[in-house]
Amino acid sequence: FAARHHLGIGVAYVPFPVLSQIVNYYREKCAEVGWLPTPDDILYRGAVCVAKSEEAAQHDAARCVLRNLNVTMRGGINEAGLDPAGMNLAKMGELSMARFVGTPDTVVQQVKECKEQGGAGVIDFGFHVPGLPHDEVMSRMELFGRDVLPQIRNI
After folding, report:
1. Model-level pTM?
2. Residues 49-74: what's their mean pLDDT?
3. What are phi and psi of 109, to 5 degrees?
4. Which of 33, 130, 131, 137 is deepest in the core (most CB within 10 A)?
5. What pLDDT was estimated at residue 84?
6. Cα dist. 5→63, 100, 109, 151 in Å?
7. What is the 3 state secondary structure string of 72-117?
8. Residue pLDDT, tens place only, 94-149
9. What distance in Å separates the CA atoms of residue 106 and residue 28, rounded to the nearest whole number?
10. 22 to each of 15, 92, 95, 98, 100, how far by Cα in Å?
């Protein structure tokens, strides 16, 4: 549907290798109808757990794991059997929403990986970590804005 109507795609929370598989499938379907999407047509959403230390970021990321999932998938993605790295996308037991985890320099590297592996031209960063007090969320957002954003602005 998206390919036939020249619509962009949004993918959320999957690991970068899975993102790459999904985007490649999307691009194949677009090519079949004579359309080549640009990176700006590909949006990726992932939670950000940025902190001054790797340990603090990992602690935050542990709060972003969803357990006992039974995800119903329809249409092309499920039919394509996208199951890289042994993941069963239709019946994941748990999924971490945190894809950008670490110090500012680590997060910058992960953003580069996301764009290189997945081809996403637009990244939607989610800063809410379940159970994290508002002032700590704001502190992480300020750290991201000060130390990450200037480095990724032109990637």
Report:
1. 0.80
2. 78
3. -65, -40
4. 137
5. 43
6. 38, 31, 34, 35
7. CCCHHHHHCCCCHHHCCCCCCCEEECEEEEECHHHHHHHHHHHHHH
8. 667 889 999 999 999 999 999 998 899 999 999 987 788 899 999 999 999 999 99
9. 32
10. 11, 16, 17, 18, 19
Kindly state the tokens that stand for 36: 């080549």
DSSP secondary structure, the chain, as one string: -TTTTT--EEEES--HHHHHHHHHHHHHHHHHTT----GGGEEEEEEEEE-SSHHHHHHHHHTTEEES------HHHHHTT--GGG--TTS-SEEE-EEEEESHHHHHHHHHHIIIII--SEEEEE---TT--HHHHHHHHHHIIIIIHHHHTT-
Extract the tokens encoding 114: 């996301």
